[in-house]
Design a protein that fits this description.
It is a single chain. This protein is 39% helix and 20% strand. The radius of gyration is 13 Å and the shape is globular. It has helices at 42-49, 57-68, 72-88, and strands spanning 13-14, 19-23, 28-33, 36-39, 92-93. The strands form 2 sheets. It has a 3-stranded antiparallel beta sheet, with helices on one face.
Length: 94
């Protein structure tokens, strides 16, 4: 199946009722939603923590690149794929 990635100009935001939360029991961040719990690794947590509903994907990539001192071109594809997956899982919307 060939999936089209969300565009760099798209503004991702959390679906209604979905939020990022630190789970003390699991000692990691999770995405909580209606009948949903997704455990995130460090990369997923970093990406999800940058989603504010106002910044487009390109701005998010640039903030992450600055934060982790990497070239934005090196992480653009990964961030776009992650966000596309989260849209498909109804965690994010664009």
């Amino acid at each position: 199946m060939n999936v089209e990635l969300i565009s760099s100009s798209a503004v991702p935001k959390y679906e209604r009722g979905v939020r990022l939360k630190h789970d003390r029991v699991r000692e990691r961040h999770v995405v909580l939603g209606p009948e949903m719990l997704i455990e995130l690794n460090q990369t997923g947590t970093a990406i999800m923590s940058e989603i504010d509903g106002q910044s487009n994907l390109s701005e998010i990539v640039h903030r992450l690149a600055e934060r982790f001192e990497v070239n934005p071109q090196d992480i653009n594809q990964d961030v776009s794929e992650f966000c596309t997956t989260m849209v498909m899982r109804r965690v994010l919307q664009t």
